[in-house]
Structures
1.
Amino acid sequence: MTRTILFAALAAAAFHAHANPTVEKNGLLASKDGKTLYTFAKDAAGKSNCNGGCASTWPPFVVANPALADGDFSIVARDDGSKQWAYKAMPLYFYAADAQPGDAKGDGQGAWSAAKAQPNTAKADANGSMYTGGRRDSAY
């Protein structure tokens, strides 16, 4: 019985703990393995409002390596203390019914939308550095 519970916990962790988010060719955000990411209109910047049963259908995109947070990709703390990826401060989720990489069955379901990359509006500051809203880089 204990092995079964341990195996189920490890399988769930493997499903949720993907690497850092990526941008697919179609402009949608996805996990490294191509699973579509979603945002929830009822969330606030930096705060997930999808917990309990909601998180069963819309599993949070749990952070495996916090050192990868950079630019528009940040980390938010969930109510249970776990860490979740966010894009422009909006928490990111998977949809449990998406079986294959590239599936986006959750897009438009209620308050849920497939997360889309938004172009950065880079501006040069007085020192000639580029500012994209997340970090400053040397001008190219």
Note: Residues 1-18, 121-140 have pLDDT under 50 and may be disordered.
2.
Amino acid sequence: MDEKPSTLLSEAYMDIVEGRVKPVPSPLGRFNTSIGGGFREGQVTVVAGTAGSGKSYFLVQHMLDWTKADIPWKYKPLEDSKIDVLQRMLAINTHSWDPVTQTEEAALNATELSLDPNNITVMKRAGRCIEENTMVEGVDVNNWGMVESWMRQQADAGQRVIVVDPVSQINFVQEFKRSFDLENKFMQNITGWVKNYPCHIILVCHMTKGDGGNGSIRGSAAFTNLAHNDIRIMGHEQRESPIFIPEGGRDSVTHNKTIYISKARNGHTGKSIACRVGNNGPEFMELGYIAPEEKKGKYGRN
């Protein structure tokens, strides 16, 4: 006889109370809070941004933190090589731009950093979590079905976070099929089976330029319509924005990155976090939640 719904509910809540269900945390405190205490089991997140906005560094910063916390993860880069990803991780781990700066002096400095025993340990562990981006002549290794199958294999293997970067490199074009039909099927399949696993899937998407960094995601609307979280990484010139402060009220900060978070299925209503990148290497430093502009009445009163 099936268990009563009330029993199933109570067991589900006790899983949370007793710590059997734990979201995978983000090293960024405000961001972590905004996505419900971490990347939740059985869900899919889309991380999007224009070229150069910082999507990869944002994710590498998270993967470095997960490596140090012994959280199983797997990363499938479809554009960058494994060495590219490790160079970015070394840059964040050492708070230095040298590992990703193409000059002779920077290369010499980066060589010393890469030979530091502490860095070697972290890089070795992270390297085992990064798939090498290999292309085989005559074989469509990035076919959407093969990528989905790879993700399923990683979920079966016990990975807590599975990242594919970017989906624009996945082949969604097949004879007699329209690409947006296959993109919808791809997302429907993933969101269907992932709910049965204690893992979270992150899909990285490119965005079209325009509209102040808020351009649309390339590909079909299925990526954000069917995902659980919609994260937009926006890189821009230094700008000043009002932020909320813990004591109440407002302050202003100068920042060159903005992280926008929304529950994708509820439409584009969410929070924006002002961040700075550059002072201590390529890692994101949160500065505060961006406050909406204060509207003033006809005579200048709020």
Note: The chain has one domain: 22-289.
